[in-house]
Specification:
mainly beta; Immunoglobulin-like; seven-stranded antiparallel sheet; two-stranded antiparallel sheet; 1 helix; globular
Length: about 90
């Protein structure tokens, strides 16, 4: 995945959009390309509602693993992250 999407190799890292004892969601940017990476170290699935930065509130995010498209609603994006797993969402 990192070879196919340069933003995952050398994109700048922003402050976490979400951080708790089991879940971290990071934003990466490389030029016009953006990625959201979510990692869950809990043994149960976790749901999170993210308040997106202004520049990302209209983005259509594509899941890098299954190709599903997720769209923010009112500037927020809801994700479910499987247990002991992660998600990678891409835009542009």
């Amino acid at each position: 995945m990192r070879q196919s999407h340069p933003v995952l190799r050398h994109g700048s890292l922003e402050a976490p959009l979400h951080l708790d004892a089991h879940l971290i969601v990071l934003v990466r940017q490389s030029g016009q390309h953006w990625a959201l990476t979510a990692t869950n170290n809990a043994t149960q699935a976790r749901r999170v509602r993210l308040a997106l930065p202004e520049a990302l509130r209209q983005a259509e995010w594509r899941d890098a693993l299954d190709g599903r498209v997720l769209r923010p609603v009112d500037g927020h994006l809801e994700l479910e992250i499987p247990p002991l797993f992660g998600r990678v969402l891409l835009w542009n």
